[in-house]
Amino acid sequence: MVEHDAPGLVEFVESKRTLAEYHGQEALKDWLRQDVTLWRTNDLRALPMGYLLCGPIGTGKTFLVECLAGEAGVPVLKLKNFREKWVGSSEGNLEKIFRLIRALGRCIVFVDEADQTLGRRDSGNNDSGLSGRLYSMIAQEMSDTANRGKVVWVLASSRPDLIEADLKRPGRVDLRVPILPTTSQADSLELIAALARRYELAISPAELQQMQSTLPLMLTPGAAEALVMKAYRVARTQNVTGGTALANCLNGYQNPVPQDVLDKQMRLAVREATDLSFVPESLRHLATSDPANS
Fold this sequence. Notes:
Elements: H1 2-5, E1 10-13, H2 26-40, E2 50-54, H3 61-72, E3 76-79, H4 89-104, E4 107-111, H5 114-117, H6 130-142, E5 151-157, E6 175-178, H7 185-198, H8 205-211, H9 221-238, H10 242-250, H11 259-272
Parallel strand pairs: 2-5, 2-6, 3-4, 4-5
Antiparallel strand pairs: 1-3
């Protein structure tokens, strides 16, 4: 019904996943479970108005939102393209989205690629001030305390530095969390093992242990999923075991995200963190590094 009332403006998602299905980042999952408990018990004073999930592409930001929504038992309303060329149409579309959000009761509003979607305070003369007006409307809606406990905004971006600082302030976004790739081969092993189970790629624990030293570091869930899917294909088409298929796929493996891009996006994400407990100790030095020099 929501999508029918706002065709092309929103995507309505109901998730059956839980945080138990999200691999790693135990400190973050503990925090989010605490927030869900506060939400369910209607203890809203300490409940964040919004979250910012930042990290390299492929790190599972959208998947985490689905898991959070399933854990909380609330729908996800994902914003799509609400901009139009006609004067006043974009603002009207945004008002329609806001009315739908309020009518849903408790929900999560998910804004993917938030650095591109949310507009800027000063957009210059290129669009006759449209981006600035849309930015102002969104900023006002995100900071409306009447929505606390009803609407949680979740922004996701690999370039959080491009989101206006005013949109990321407490009262709009109270929790900024870096979503990062694996930092050890043991983490990479756990991630691949979890995805192998999901895709029913039979690899014994002993085989995985033997391959641990050959597993790549800085592995994102997206890259790991592509690797497991490739191994699944090799196992089926070449009639070899899952372990052999994965070992073959690891030969000559290259990260799909260039290292310089990955390094910069990791630095940006760590510098945004509201709490370094969400950051692996091996990466905390990035909080004081300059991403422009990466």
